[in-house]
C-alpha cells in the first residue's frame, strides 16, 4: 500500500505560519489517497495458476478430509497391535508358531496350480487357528457362510439373466461367416 499526498496544495511562501500560530496539540490535516500498484507479470501468472488449480485443490482437500479419519483409525489399530504383542497372553507365541507352520506346510504341499497355492496355506492356517480359537472360528464361519451364500445367489441370478435375455443364436453360414439369426417363440 502506497499513500501519496495530493499535489494540489503545495506549500508556498504565502502559507507559511509563524511558530506562535502553530497548534501545540494537533498536526495539520493531510489529504491522502490510496494508489494501487499495478500487477506484475509474475503476479498475474500466479493468479491465473491459482484460478486454474482451484478445483484440484478442493478435490485434494476433500480427499484428505475423508482419508484422515481412516488413517487415524489404522494408526490406532497398529498401536493396539504393538501393545498386544509387547504384552501377549500366555501361550500366544506357541499358538502363532503352529498356525504359521501350518501355512508353510500348506505352501509345501501345494505343488502345481496357483489355486492350490492359495487354498492350501489358507485352509491349513484356518484349521490351525480354529483349533486354538474355536469360538472366533464359529463366528467367522457363520459370517463367511452367509456372505458366500449371498455371492453365489447373485452369481446365479446374473448367469440366469444372461441366459434368458439372449434370444439370438449364432449359426455358421454358407460362406464361412458367422451370422446371427433371431428365433421367434
TrEMBL record:
It comes from the Eukaryota. Keywords: Membrane, Mitochondrion, Mitochondrion inner membrane, Transmembrane, Transmembrane helix. Pfam families: ApoO. One of its GO terms (biological process) is cristae formation. InterPro entries: MIC26/MIC27 (IPR019166), MIC26/MIC27_animal (IPR033182). Its main location: mitochondrion. It is found in: Mitochondrion inner membrane; Mitochondrion membrane. One of its GO terms (cellular component) is cytosol. The keyword Lipoprotein does not apply. The chain crosses the membrane at residues 92-110. Component of the mitochondrial contact site and cristae organizing system (MICOS) complex. Component of the MICOS complex, a large protein complex of the mitochondrial inner membrane that plays crucial roles in the maintenance of crista junctions, inner membrane architecture, and formation of contact sites to the outer membrane. Belongs to the apolipoprotein O/MICOS complex subunit Mic27 family. This is MICOS complex subunit.
Amino acid at each position: 500500500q502506497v499513500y501519496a499526498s495530493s499535489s494540489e496544495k503545495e506549500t508556498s511562501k504565502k502559507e507559511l505560519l509563524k511558530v506562535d500560530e502553530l497548534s501545540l496539540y494537533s498536526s495539520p490535516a493531510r489529504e491522502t489517497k490510496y494508489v494501487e500498484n499495478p500487477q506484475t507479470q509474475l503476479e498475474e501468472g500466479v493468479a491465473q495458476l491459482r484460478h486454474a488449480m482451484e478445483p484440484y485443490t478442493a478435490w485434494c482437500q476433500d480427499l484428505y478430509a475423508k482419508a484422515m479419519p481412516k488413517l487415524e483409525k489404522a494408526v490406532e489399530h497398529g498401536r493396539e497391535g504393538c501393545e498386544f504383542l509387547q504384552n501377549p497372553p500366555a501361550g500366544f507365541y506357541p499358538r502363532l508358531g503352529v498356525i504359521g507352520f501350518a501355512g508353510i506346510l500348506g505352501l509345501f504341499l501345494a505343488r502345481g496350480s496357483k489355486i492350490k497355492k492359495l487354498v492350501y496355506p489358507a485352509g491349513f492356517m484356518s484349521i490351525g487357528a480354529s483349533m486354538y480359537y474355536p469360538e472366533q472360528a464359529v463366528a467367522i464361519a457363520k459370517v463367511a457362510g452367509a456372505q458366500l451364500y449371498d455371492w453365489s445367489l447373485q452369481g446365479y441370478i446374473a448367469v440366469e439373466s444372461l441366459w434368458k435375455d439372449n434370444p439370438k443364436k449364432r449359426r455358421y453360414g454358407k460362406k464361412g461367416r458367422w451370422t446371427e439369426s433371431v428365433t421367434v417363440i
